Prior knowledge:
The chain has 156 residues and is of the alpha/beta class.
Amino acid sequence: MKQKKLLLISSIGGHLTQLLQLEGLFKNYQYHLVTEKSEITEQLMEKYPVSLLMYGARNYPIRYIYKFTYNTIKSLCIFLKHRPDIIITTGAHTAVPMCYLAKLFGRKIIFIESFAKSTSPTLSGRMVYPISDLFIVQWESMKKVYPKAVYGGSIY
């Protein structure tokens, strides 16, 4: 049986920290990490197969539109190169285009809502929830926000 290919994607910071908590799981598959470029994430390349997107904070809207467009195109290239079966993400804006590309190509999407959110949704969570195959929340209270979600507990 062919081993499943995972593509794990998140923004830098807490989202990436949470995603890397799943290392015990993703090491059992063919996997590739995608995150935003920074000094810290460049060091990840020594340990993991990584592709880096442009860092895109939303505090400068004009620059953000350019970076989001660039990252969407680069996400398509990464997707076509690695052809993952499953996308796993802990979110933020960097991951949203990849999730929609995956859905377009009939791939599975697993979204893990941020541990920091116990009563309200993230923007990326609201955007990916309708297309996700498995939506995991880390707080039981978030089942009120996302009724079809699965409570998975903390990944820390």
